[in-house]
Each structure stands twice: as C-alpha cells, then as structure tokens.
User: Fold this.
Amino acid sequence: MTNHEDESDPDQEQVSTTDDLEAESIRALLRKSSRMEDEAPDLVLGFQKKLRKRSGGKFYADGWSTSKEPPIMISLITSILVLLVAYALYAESRPLAGESISVPMTPAPVRVLPPPKDR
Assistant:
C-alpha cells in the first residue's frame, strides 16, 4: 500500500511557484513605477524653461508663472484691488439710488396738420 498523502503533487508545486513569481513580478513593477513617478521630470517646467531660453525671455519671463508654488500674494493683492474698485463704484453710484421724484404726466398738446393739397 502506497501513501499518496506524503508525496506532494509536482503540478501543484509548479502552479504555486508560478503564482508566487507572478505576484513578485507585479510587486517589482509597482515599486519601479512608484520610483519613476518620483524621479519623473516636470515636463511643463522643462518646456517653459526651454521656450524662455529660445525666445530670449519673451515668453515666461516673469518668475511666478514658472514657479512651483502658487502666486498667493499676487492673487491676494489682485482680489483686494478688485474689492476696492467695486466699493468705489458702489460708493459713487449710491447717491443715485434715492427717492423717486414725481413727474407730471400730462400729455403735450397734439397739433393735427391738414392733409397736403394736391397741385
């Protein structure tokens, strides 16, 4: 009588080994792709620098359009200026919005002209 339970199936071992190899290769690809994202060059920044260099500073000459941080101070100053202009316009037009005055609505006299005479 032979004991089959003591012997392991070589096909089963091969399948599990293949699964392990596939899983490991997938993990390696994921690690590699995450490293590539960290090391990937910023294409927009590179394009802007190259265009600025080739155009002699005509395009992207200002520093804030090519910086990585958002221009918070410029946005803040612009919004404050817009609010000041809006307030100035409101203060200027405020006296125009007041009580309405009554206007006499009597119709003007109508002068009826006779039809022209034919010659």
Summary: The two ends are 143 Å apart (CA to CA). Helices lie at 10-39, 43-55, 72-93. Residues 1-6 have pLDDT under 50 and may be disordered.
